[in-house]
Amino acid sequence: MSAADTRQQIVDAADRLFYEQGFEVTSFADIASAVNLSRGNFYYHFKTKDEILGAVIALRLANTRQMLDAWEAEGREPADRIRSFIHILIMNRVKIMAYGCPVGTLCSELAKLDHIAKEEAAKLFILFRDWLARQFAAFGREKDAEALAMHILMRSQGVASLATAFHDASFIRREVDGMCDWLEALRPDETVQS
Amino acid sequence: MSAADTRQQIVDAADRLFYEQGFEVTSFADIASAVNLSRGNFYYHFKTKDEILGAVIALRLANTRQMLDAWEAEGREPADRIRSFIHILIMNRVKIMAYGCPVGTLCSELAKLDHIAKEEAAKLFILFRDWLARQFAAFGREKDAEALAMHILMRSQGVASLATAFHDASFIRREVDGMCDWLEALRPDETVQS
Fold it and tell me: What is the gyration radius of the CA atoms in chain A, in angstroms?
């Protein structure tokens, strides 16, 4: 296996472990054993856990960009694209009920750790917010596009948080329907609806 | 200082540290040094961090019950009481922007750790949900009281999560206004509004 492949394997394993267990609790040894690497080979790629975190955030940013670009390419109307975002909650419900939202829980953990990478992790939210705002603007809501983007992002975070605590898939479905109804009721150039 | 006072001091310090730093990252030594206790004196009260966690959850449940009872006693109308809940976001905005919601972030961390106390911590959410559902029922929405309770709890979680990542007090205020408008627009015996 090439050095680049090994590095990618490490980052993929760290991505999964940081999400499923948390960043702080995941040790170098956990990651090394997940990819079956010796300490020496591991250290050749990464010297510190913070370096791995940086690579994990970069990976998530790249994957998110790719996903949003794909939705932009395939979604006929801006509302379809926003619905693609809303439906992440259904698509990923099993993982969300077990581990929460990967973005929200990482940002929250890094905030508590007052970790140097916390602003970098928040760029994941900014990526979603800016993409959503672009869709709301294309929908004819230029004036309050960013507020609407933050509102729907807020609802997806809230659903993920309670889904983890209550393990209730029917709650997720009900709230996803509510988000779609809210979107449906939005009309160009009205004020923000609650 | 009496043994009971010392115990209370330990639990108060752990409560604060678990909230501000996270549960996993907080060590016995952190808590002992926060209350200026020797290891020996500390171990007299608590043998494991899980025991302290149990005491912290019990403390939070008791404090939450007391707060909800006080709102119930002073709030004239059910809608006033629900507004008291919504306004936690404003009242605690500085801490929320720094550390998130104490309930949501603890439940999320314990879920990732697959910690034995995760169901116990979820009782904090259940306490809020049941209290809110009681207010919505008193408001004349018996049929969907629990769904409405989950909806407003979801929104408060979503606001807390994004407030931590974006440090934007004006976003909190806007969403709190939106929650109050949503409540205002609710009428007895209508279906759940999105």
Answer: 19
- Residues A145, A174: Cα–Cα separation, whole Å: 25
CA B14, chain centre distance (Å): 15
Residue with tokens 């979603």: A128
List the 153-192 stretch of A: residues with Cβ below 8 A of B. Answer: 153-159, 161-162, 164-166, 171, 174-175, 177-179, 181-182, 185, 192
* A20, A113, A164: best to mutate for the B interface, most B CBs within 10 A: A164
Q: Are A160 and B154 in contact (CB under 8 A)?
A: no
In angstroms, the CA A117 to CA A139 distance is 34
In this predicted structure, the answer to whether residue B189 has a pLDDT above a threshold of 60 is no
What are the tokens at A89? Answer: 């909650």
Q: Chain A residues with CB inside 8 Å of B128's CB? A: none
Contacts of residue A73, defined as CB under 8 A and 6 or more positions apart, other chains included, come to none
- Residues within 8 A of B (CB atoms), A 66-125 only: 98-101, 104-105, 107-109, 111-113, 121-122, 125
pTM, 2 dp: 0.94
Selection from A46, A23, A180 nearest residue A106 by Cα: A23
Predicted complex ipTM: 0.94
Chain A nearest C-alpha distance from B5 (Å): 28
In this predicted model, what pLDDT tens digit does every residue of A96-124 receive, in sequence order?
A: 999 999 999 999 999 999 999 999 999 99
Q: Taking the CB of residue B30, how many other CB atoms lie within 10 A of it? A: 13
Mean pLDDT, chain B, rounded, equals 94
